[in-house]
Design a protein that fits this description.
Blueprint lengths: L2 H15 L12 E3 L2 E3 L1 H6 L10 E5 L8 H11 L3 E5 L1 H9 L3 E5 L16 H17 L4 E4 L9 H22 L2 E5 L15 H11 L4 E6 H7 L3 H8 L3 E5 L17 H10 L5 E4 L8 H11 L5
Parallel strand pairs: 3-4, 3-10, 4-5, 6-7, 7-8, 8-9, 9-10
Antiparallel strand pairs: 1-2
Amino acid sequence: MTERDKNKISRRRAIKRMASAGGHLVVGGMTMGNTVLKDKDLEMMNIGPLKNAIDHAVCRWCYQNIPLEEFSEKVRQIGIKGIDLLKPEEWEVVIKHNLECSLATDTFVSIENGFNNTKNHNGLISNYEALIMKAADFGIDKVIVFSGNRDGMTDQVGLENCANGLKGLVKHAEKAGVTLVMELLNSKLDHRGYQCDNTQWGVSLVDKIGSPNFKLLYDIYHMQIMEGDIISTIKEYHPYFAHYHTGGVPGRNEINDSQELNYKAIVQAIAGTGFKGYIAQEFIPTYDDQLMSLKEGVQICNVQL
């Protein structure tokens, strides 16, 4: 073990010692939208011990109105192990609560201005090199990247530009033990013009870069909008996917039976591939109690092989 590895472990241990033990989340009767839940409904929604077929995470941006300290404590009690899309100044908070930053980002990261534009390469590479090293120091093993918008660029040119901009950076990530994951996003509704908007383009980029430290974030919500056929795609291309996001379609709200996707079956399919990473809830909650909304989502995704 190198001196750097020892320091990293010592840092994590020191931060975790600061964590206080948490109790069970107690939720009484409440109103979710226009529906009043009875005590028996809440009892049925109790998660209890998770079955550990997959690890649960949640995206921070969907719950920005809850302070991160409070949010970290509550989600850990629900059974969530990681929080996605945290910036460096937020990492120590979640580690203190015995959570992981399951996917790192930073203020310079842009969906629109990504690696498909060569003018962005120098700045992105410099900033990402620093972010990768910071993440490695905290034991964080995944960092998000984006293709950027087309802006009239063909898919082939965008593919070549992304590969050229990322290849050297991926080698840097390999040495640090970090995986870069490019997110698949829809270009119809939420991110018009985004280039990495279909599985096949993303898979082609992964093949072109040819490193186990570059993979895709398969966002189920976005890919249902773009191409559908979710379970078949997961079964065929799962070796290319290092991370998953959820979200109800249409609307990007809860993943219950108010929307068109069967998340229980989808997560069962993911677990069946032997996936060992995180599935992160990334829906916008509509319930009066946002944490109950999140708890419901975790319960739906709580599958057993």
